Amino acid sequence: MNTENLRIVVADHDEVNRIFFRNIFKEAKVPVSSLEFDSGRSMMEYFNTISKAIPGILFMNHNLPGKESAAYLNKIKSDPEFSRLIVVIYSSGLTEEQIEDMFIRGGNIFMRLPDNYQELKKLLLEVVNSSWQYHASALSIETFIMRVE
Amino acid sequence: MFLIHHIHYITMKLYVKFDINTLCRKVLDQQLREHGLRYRFLSFGEVELYESLNHDQHVIFRNKLADYGIEVIENQKTALVQKIKDAIVQLVFSDEIIPVKASVYLAEKLNHSYGYLSNLFSEIACTSIENFIILQKIEYAKELIVGGRQNLTEIARKLNYSSVAHLSSQFKNTTGLTPSQFQKIMAKRKRLYNPLNHKMQS
User: Is the Cβ of B108 closer than 8 Å to some Cβ of chain A?
Assistant: First the structure.
């Protein structure tokens, strides 16, 4: 069983989200460590400096400026080196078509971004706990698809 | 007449077959002796030490074994949880129908009371045994759906659900999607990332 920390990376231009996420991750009952980036570009730069073949979880705001999130999702999911990386896309409102499109491009989890902290905490911890099960038991990321709303 | 002397280097290939069990045992034996430890082998992958290691000895011993690609699983608790997980995977993915409840099966197989296993599991695995069984069943269902050889009725029966509705609701509870939504996404994803595949099929 893999009992190492689950590495979390957050890419979000919104500082408030990043602060909320950081605080909530501290309350996770599974072992995690987290890193934040304020743009998709700085996130990719980070990935390029480390061995990409690390298991972990990436939270990416769907509304990154310049509609970058879809491009980064494609890039990550077409690169086998990222095959152990769970990608979570979150947004306060996406249409059914947009959610489906995100899954088809290879996104693993869609999380609705709620507007109150308690609810955000509940959803975020649910995502982290589920992902940790995949991480600890080395389950298939390829068929890991989940909607948390 | 000149004789040309050729020097022949005779080369030869050896084909070897490994017995991992013997190999690992040998390495472990050697390392344990070198560290002056008294021990006995239990089942495969299990060694009982007659005295406990202090932290530094533990680290040195671990690193030494790591050179041989042998990982010391952190402790007994984690190892037992791994055994529970393995037993659950076996139970869920087995084609045989096991005629007892999962709790009875696990208790008998692992030789501990279910109460003990259940508490230990929740503490270490951060989920309950019941939820882990559901997770594994849904994993199997996904595998069968993607495989495309069985329909949902057959999959529900194979996984011991009373009905398709029962399978679908557990699938939805676990993943937030219905089995058919999942199936549709996986099919479209395959076409996106394997366009060649798609062309050949159409």
Answer: no
Q: Cβ–Cβ of B193/A106 closer than 8 Å?
A: yes
Gyration radius from chain B CA atoms:
26
What's the distance, CA A9 to chain centroid?
7
Give the closest-approach CA distance of B177 to chain A in angstroms.
Answer: 7
Interface size A-B, in CB pairs within 8 Å, comes to 62
* 3-class SS letters over A33-64: EEEEECCHHHHHHHHHHCCCCCCEEEEEECCC
Q: Which residues contact B76 (CB under 8 A, 6 or more apart)?
A: none
Please state whether beta strands B39-41 and B47-49 pair in parallel, antiparallel, or not at all (unpaired). Answer: antiparallel
CATH of the domain at A77: 3.40.50.2300
Q: Which domain holds residue A93?
A: 6-148
Kindly report, residue by residue over A67-88, the tens digit of the pLDDT.
789 999 999 998 888 988 999 9
ipTM greater than cut 0.90: yes
User: Exposure of A3 by Cβ count < 10 A (0-12 exposed, 13-18 middle, 19+ buried)?
Assistant: middle
Domain count of the fold of chain A: 1
| A69: in domain | yes
- Three-state DSSP at B197 gives helix
Whose tokens are 């509304």? That residue is A63
Whether residue A106 is contained in a domain is answered as: yes
pTM for this prediction = 0.77
User: How high is the pLDDT of residue B2?
Assistant: 55
Instruction: Compute mean pLDDT per 10 residues along chain B, 202 residues long, and list them.
Output: 61 80 85 85 75 73 82 78 93 82 93 95 93 96 95 94 96 97 95 65 42
Q: For residue A14, is pLDDT > 50?
A: yes
In angstroms, the CA A6 to CA A55 distance is 7
Q: Indicate the average pLDDT of chain A.
A: 92
- Residues of chain A in contact with residue B177, where contact means CB-CB under 8 angstroms, are 145-147
CB-CB contact of A96 with A118 (8 Å): no
User: Is residue A18 one of the residues assigned to a domain?
Assistant: yes
Q: Is residue A1 part of a domain?
A: no
